[in-house]
Amino acid sequence: MSDMWVDPADDPRTFGNPKGEKATLREYLGNYRLTLEMKCGGLDAEQLARRSVPPSTLSLLGLVRHLAQVENHWFQRVLQGRVDRPRLFKRDDDRDADLNGAIADPAVVEEAFVAWKAEIAAADEWLDALDEGDLGREVPFDEDTVSVRDVLVHVIEEYARHAGHADLLRECIDGRTGQ
What we know:
The chain is mainly alpha-helical. The protein is built from 6 helices and 2 strands; from the N terminus they run αααααββα. It has one domain (8-174): Four Helix Bundle (Hemerythrin (Met), subunit A) (Up-down Bundle). A two-stranded antiparallel sheet has the order 1-2. A hairpin with a 2-residue loop joins strand 1 and strand 2.
């Protein structure tokens, strides 16, 4: 157990056989958000910004910045049509600014986690007001439309993929694995 984050009995994630599609999607999303937070826990700015798998620019801090941007893009800009909101951690001259800007500076770490938590809170507030029947609702996206359900599944997929990356990054930093 020394390489695990918490005793399984104290795991903050839930696996409670939720009732309904919306509850199921929210449980998966919430668990993946918690997984990323757990994998970043207890690390300093240098460790969070460390590119553990060269030549990749991927780091745990970069993942936090990227997922803040993902939450912002899909929940604010696409689902709510708030295209006037600034894009987080994006620049026209650097399509990977969310990853490349993840530097070992405590202010950058704080900014990333504050932004990520704020985007999660905003998304959760919107999701709280969503009726189960709204999951099939279509919203404009690019030259077509996308359903709320598809967006939720895509965001879960983003977190799932990056949770795997976070496993490898954290193991390279201090040997902690799993969970």
